[in-house]
Amino acid sequence: MMRKTLLATAALGLGLAFGGTASAQALDKAKACFIYVGPKNDGGWSQYHHEAVEKMQAHYGDKVEVQYQESVPEGADAERVMSQMALSGCNIIFATSFGFMDATNNVAGKFPNVKFEHATGYKREHANVSTYNARFYEGRAVTATIGGLMTKSNKLGYIGSYPIPEVIMGINAVYLAAKKVNPEVELSVVWAFSWFDPAKEADAAKALIDQGVDVIFSHTDSTAPLIEAQKAGNVTGFGQAADMPEFGPYPRVSSIIDDWAPYYIERVGAVLEGKWEQSDRWDGIASGEVKIGEFSSAVPDDVKAKAQEVMDGIVAGTLHPFTGPLNKQDGTQFLKEGETISDADLAGMMFYVEGIKGDIPK
Amino acid sequence: MIRLEKRPTPSRTWVAVTPVLAVLLTMIAGGLMFWALGKNPFEAIRTIFWDPLFNEQFAAYSRPQLLVKAGPLILIAIGLSLGFRAGIWNIGAEGQYIMGAIAGAAVGLYFYPEPGWHIFPLMVAAGLVGGMLWGLIPGLLKVWFGTNEILVSLLLVYVAESLLAAMAIGKMKNPDGGGFPGSRNFAKYEASANPELIAGTGMHLGVVTAFIAVIAAYVLLQRHMLGYNIRLTGQAPRAARFSGVSPAALVLICMGASGALAGMAGLFEVTGPGGQISIDFASGYGFTAVIVALLGRLNPIGILLAGLLLALTYIGGELAQFMLSLPKASIQAFQGMLLFFLLALDLLSNYRIRLARREVAR
Questions:
Q1: What is the tens place of the pLDDT at every residue in B222-250?
Q2: Signal peptide position in this chain (chain A) (predicted)?
Q3: Measuring CA to CA, which of A120, A354, B152, B227 is 20 to 30 A from B18?
């Protein structure tokens, strides 16, 4: 198509102007660009990406120029923003939300000399697209151990964003880990259908608390669930994607922290050295991409010890949160005794494990 | 002392001058805001208004994008303006836009993967009918039960959004999508695609339809009896009734027509720039179009210009955000200023300012 050629030519021209088109060529200076799905100060997901970006910038100093855009809607707008970024001379563009997937691949096809990195996606339609994700479910196994032991009503609540495998594996991980330490637990799931919507997240938290839930997990980006937990007074919560220490020592008793800085430093470094290659990264607690926030003083010592044990087991590789025997919600066998789940099954997980009530929205 | 004196008819000079004046005032006030944020105000204003149109680096891409962004805004706003003129306030175009997209998508998915020239026209017809029916619900309720169309049409947006989410994760989910939400990509399937008519121009059928709608609305309002009745009802409802205009018919015509145009806009978007039915498909076009309609003073030509202007501030605003690291909120504030000055200066078209000494009783 003519437009594609036109854009590619423009990109080529820019590439020349900015020093080198061949991907194997080292650069003196690189421009790294980022798009966030929420505001950069959302207190959660986008903020931790942004903080990692700042660490990366500090690491390279003048060698790397950073540009970013916050609150980019998923869809046609994201495609335009990334195209304009590529035209402005970005060498590498990070799209930091699942919903940017098609847009990232579309733009990558038009700008073969720009590198694209898509967080939490699975499509790599062109050689210049990589994906990266973190094993948040490992962190959930730790926080769910705390939640399972601290609940008094034995009712746990989960605020889900969208019913995609990423979120469903988190729900399953929470249920399995909590069930392991407390066979009485029940888990209720409420869907917000948004990554960042403080009002909806707060409503979801209220609905859960009204049902008698006293431990809330969330897979959304804002601090609203913790604010509701704080109002309720006797509801335990966790920092999600960010430490959220301002809610400690209670209701926030621990947290799952995303640390993208090492990855950003590595990938931007690869562009500088001309050694960037397509990859599909999925790291967890062991490599530091997922961190567990400090257990607060509200957590009893024996609970802390138990959570630490889970964490140490995951780091050592002796404990996998998804280990058989494990049945699907409908009772069919999924994992045999001692078997652990494959990454492929995990990445496509679209079912609840046995014991979770309710249906995944269809 | 300053006195305001109502003009018998709006001043033609001021009607023509105020939009330009409003843009200038926005540039000054916005420039001050950018300056207060520590940015070069001239650079910021240039990036927003000039670079998308004339910057060598971006313009080849941004100019066509202007049409892509303005097309649906203009199409929806034209429909809304008919009702607004007659005092019928359809605030739910966003919902009609969504329903049009869903109805059209359903037809497209029904035929998938059949080829055929007849598929796209059928989808457009379905989009039109889908939007129209959704718009007629508040219309019929108003006619039958005297309900308020503002509230009903607005609340139906939330119903449509939930239906959209249900479709994206349920009935319309791409069976080859690995369990992730979102339908098949219509833009990638020839029979249902709405591509650019001439590559590199941004001109797709939706933009063409928007231009046709502008002309049709102009002719309707100036030359046609229905247009006269609409204007008469807005200016003098009682007189209109005496002259035999049926208020009920007018409500249904206006709600149906604005719903139909919004539905078509949704269909052209989902088959073109948007590509697929996804949870976040609706990106606020229906609400922004209300602003466009009012900004264009409910005049077809005015709406055309207002749509292009607003699209420019969106695209230029995106550029300014990542080129100059301006926060998104400042761009929204900037757009708000534009609206504020335009409406505030309306005063000058409708009133004369008199500087007069207080009359003293003799």
A1: 888 888 888 888 888 888 888 888 889 99
A2: 1-26
A3: B227
Q: What is the pTM of this model?
A: 0.80
User: Where in the sequence is the domain holding A222, given as residue range(s)?
Assistant: 136-257+291-347
Q: What is the DSSP letter of A324?
A: S
What does the DSSP 8-state code read for residue B172?
A: T
Contacts for B170 with CB less than 8 Å, ≥ 6 apart: A361, A362
Mutation target for B interface from A35, A84, A123: give the one with most B CBs within 10 A: A84
Q: Which domain holds residue B50?
A: 40-325
Both A221 and A120 in one domain: the answer is no
- CB-based contact A218:A42 (threshold 8 Å): no
Contacts of B283 in chain A (CB under 8 A): 73, 75-77
Instruction: With a cut of 80, say whether residue B204 has pLDDT above it.
Output: yes
β-strands A115-119, A92-95 pairing: parallel
What integer pLDDT is reported at residue B361 of this predicted model?
55
Mean of all residue pLDDT scores within chain B: 90
Distance from the A66 Cα atom to the nearest Cα atom in chain B, whole angstroms: 9
For residue B280, the chain A residue with the least C-alpha distance is A74
Helix axis angle, B93-111 to B247-271, nearest 10°: 50
Closest CA to A17 of A80, A118, A90, A95: A90
Helix axes A261-273, A45-60, angle to 10 degrees: 40
| Residues of chain A scoring pLDDT < 70 | 1-24
Domain count, chain B: 1
Do A93 and A31 meet the contact criterion of CB atoms below 8 Å apart? Answer: no
Name which residue leads in pLDDT, A40 or B160. B160
Asked whether residue B185 is domain-assigned, the answer is yes
Which domain CATH number covers A206?
3.40.50.2300
Chain A residue numbers with beta carbons less than 8 Å from the beta carbon of B279 are 99, 162, 193
Indicate the residue type of B210: A
- Give the chain B residue nearest A85 (alpha carbons): B322
Q: Does B175 touch chain A (CB under 8 A)?
A: no
Contact B200 A6 (CB under 8 A): yes
pLDDT at position B360 is 56
- C-alpha distances (whole Å) from A6 to each of A10, A92, B57, B218 are 6, 20, 12, 37
In this structure, is residue B3 part of a structural domain? no
**A227 and A326 housed in the same domain:** yes
Same domain (yes/no): A148, A204: yes
* Predicted pLDDT of residue B233: 87
| CATH number of the domain residue B181 falls in | 1.10.3470
Task: Summarize pLDDT for A313-360 with one digit per residue, the tens.
Answer: 999 999 999 998 999 999 999 999 999 999 888 988 989 999 998 888
Lowest average pLDDT, out of B16-30, B131-145, B304-318, goes to B16-30
Question: From the list A73, A80, A361, which residue is nearest B280 (CB)?
Answer: A73
Q: Is the ipTM of this complex over 0.90?
A: no
Q: Is residue A19 part of a domain?
A: no
Q: Which residue has the higher pLDDT, A99 or B129?
A: B129
A102/B325 touch (CB, cutoff 8 Å), yes or no: no
Residues A194 and A164 in one domain: yes
Whether A67 and B323 lie within 8 Å, measured CB to CB: yes
Domain assignment of residue A44, yes or no: yes
Q: What is the pLDDT of residue B179?
A: 66
Asked if residue A279 and residue A253 are part of one domain, the reply reads no
Question: What residues of chain B lie within 8 A of the CB of A102, using their CB?
Answer: 182, 185, 275-276
Report the residue from A39, A84, A361 with minimal CB separation from B169: A361
A33, A77, A122: residue with CB nearest B322: A33
Which positions in chain B touch A350 (Cβ < 8 Å)?
Answer: 179
Residue A11 in domain: no
Would you call A165 and B180 a contact, using CB atoms and an 8 Å cutoff?
yes
Give the total number of structural domains in chain A: 2
